[in-house]
Amino acid sequence: MIDILRRLLGPAPAPLPEAEARLAFAALLVRLARSDGLYAAEETERIDRVLALHHGLDPFAAAKLRSAAEELEREAPDTVRFTRALKDATPLEDRAELLTALWSVALADGQREAHEDRLMRLVASLLGLTDVDSALARQRAERQ
Question: For residue 35, what are the domain limits?
């Protein structure tokens, strides 16, 4: 955990290895779920499902990754560094898939909160995606 924080907080962070990029993505999902002040069971279940599908994990491994991400999210100072690390680790053509996964977590509790909307706009921009890309990702998440 300390290694990834050190890498994320460094002045010129190097691209994350795959395992740490997975953890950064999971921590960003957790941060989004917690951004409205509630961390509902629907959100943790959705995070586990997203991690299982996105990374080909079994339910136990997905829950274990989420648990580690919860700890990292508590210790990490800002969202910008997670997102930059993901941008560096993910080809442009795959970033919309990350945004769809993030939207699915934001919508998991059945409510759209202003905090989540603001965070999603920030994340989309930091991933190099447009508001239109984000709206399309949200629509895909709503259909899933």
Answer: 17-143
